[in-house]
Amino acid sequence: MSLSGSLAGAEIEATVASLRQHFEAVRQHEVKRMRGRLGQLNPAQENAIESLTQGIVDQILETPINVLKAVSHDNESTTVIETVRRIFGLGESTRIFQWHLSAARSLDRVSQSASAPSVR
User: Fold this and answer.
1) CA–CA separation, 59 vs 33, rounded Å?
2) In sequence order, which ranges of the chain are alpha helices (DSSP H)?
3) Which of 3, 59, 73, 81 is the most exposed place for a label (fewest CB within 10 A)?
4) Cα separations (Å) of 111 from 39, 106, 116?
5) What are the domain boundaries of the chain?
6) What pLDDT, in 10s, does the model give residues 95-106?
7) DSSP conformational letter for 89
8) pTM of whole model > 0.70?
């Protein structure tokens, strides 16, 4: 695997983790807000609400996570990562990542040209 590919993979993992954290925070906030309206719940009802809301979050995140994983070795991975981060308001770590990825791709090209057999 190239250096740029491993950087893209690391940024995808970080983006997936940020997505999960963001949606889990939203889920917990909404469950807490709604519990006040529901009154006293027994443990089975509590578990049902937890399962239901976690299932909803998993379903919502399935496509963005699969798309991120699918582009991990694609030249467009930076664009996809940045788009997902923007859509879900996950911050701007991609600017630093883009600089690192650009540097890594340059190093990959230098490394490939140095290891290529010379033509005479």
Assistant:
1) 21
2) 3-38, 43-70, 77-87, 93-115
3) 59
4) 64, 9, 9
5) 3-109
6) 544 554 555 556
7) T
8) no
